Amino acid sequence: MANSYDVIVIGAGPAGYVAAIRCAQLGMTTAVIDEFRYKDGKPQPGGTCLNVGCIPSKALLDSSEHYHKAKDGGLSVHGITAKDVSIDVKKMIARKDKVVKDLTGGIHQLLKANKIDFKTGHGKLISNSTVEFTPHEGKAEELKGEYIILATGSKPIDIGAAPADEKDILTSNGALDMEAVPKRLGVIGAGVIGLEMGSVWNRLGSKVVLLEAQDEFLAPVDRQVARMAHKAFTDQGLDIRLGCRVTDTKVGKQVSVHYEDKDGKHTLQVDKLIVSVGRRPNTDGLAADDVDLLLDERGFVHVDDECRTNLPNVYAVGDVVRGPMLAHKGSEEGVMVAELIAGHPGHLNYDTIPWVIYTHPEIAWVGKTEAQLKSEGVPYKSGTFNFAANGRARAMEESTGMVKIISHAETDRILGVHMVGAATSELIAEAVVAMEFAGSAEDLARICHAHPTLSESVHEAALAVSKQAIHKAN
Predict the structure, then answer these.
(1) Domain CATH for 186
(2) What positions does the domain FAD/NAD(P)-binding occupy (predicted)?
(3) What is the mean pLDDT of the chain?
(4) Residue 1 has pLDDT above 60, yes or no
(5) Residues β-bridged to residue 381
(6) With 0-12 CB in 10 A as exposed, 13-18 as middle and 19+ as buried, what is 92?
(7) Which positions are catalytic?
(8) What pTM was computed for the model?
């Protein structure tokens, strides 16, 4: 293999491998370095998302939802009776692993098809044109690159009060590999990861308690959406406790979790504890000290609006830089940087990046919330529509949820769209497209939506912005 390239990418997650593929498509010789090894010890591209994040968690969410519906009466309303329903957790985990292997194997083939050198080991920036590559087995070597893209992703945040051992106290990684259902499961953090992992094991029979430090549930989410979601999760049996600060943990026959809230000090006894308080950039050992790569106080690589670092010809993308830690955000940054390097116009609109929480019901949003617009002094108007009045949702027994559309009070340009309910991870795409093209609520209101579909709720919410909804009282 060569040791000189047009582009060297460090990291083969959604930001890195996408950047590498786009660079190769644009005619540049490209290498991608990645040190991740799967639990079987084998190197595997795909980063956190494909290996221990987005994909395996969705596989478990899907499996657990099927089991929950069959066992707990979710099918009886359809006239379906299921008896003696059981769950083989090891088989469920094995299916998850196969999904991961199939997809990461596909990434491997894509890298090969695009003639990208995939190097397994550690990459370290030692100048703005040189990377020290240390393979898992073998001696370090220097690779030259005219351009270098840093895409080393993120890892779970550790907290001193609950040090993870991946046996009794788990990170989100370990939570994906439990082979038995704990009777009582504690989760520190009721954000995206905590809610998704809590939902999986709650459906499988755990009594799940989530301890959230913030006083407000899902603070970044629209308040109406958050309230509706909180009620739905509580009805499902999730015990969500807000304003809780974990002070200590002790591991014995059970895990004792000591925490404080406004009512004083408490102790929670659980069989397993998941720590999901967020993620931090994976920049340890990324660059030699004398390179002077600029990081901020939290360890993120400092970049400009086009993901350029302070070093000439060195870019950084994905979780390792500012902005939301979302796989699709990282991928689009990777494409943008590849196109900029090739001399093409590259662009990413950070105002139209969608967010999704894959619970049941799902939560999805794009753009600003009412609270943000109020604090910024932006005049706005809004319209809502509940899935309870949507024919397809009622036919699916998925009447919990709503769509809210917020537009500028004077121009009607869409400023934010917020949803909770079935398939909102898919429905949000329509809102993203509308906002990307600077669309108005009236634009969505004038588009014909198929009947009966869940997307009609988007249509009705857009109509409701101007008090013209047909299937609700305005």
Answers:
(1) 3.50.50.60
(2) 5-334
(3) 97
(4) no
(5) 407
(6) buried
(7) 451
(8) 0.96
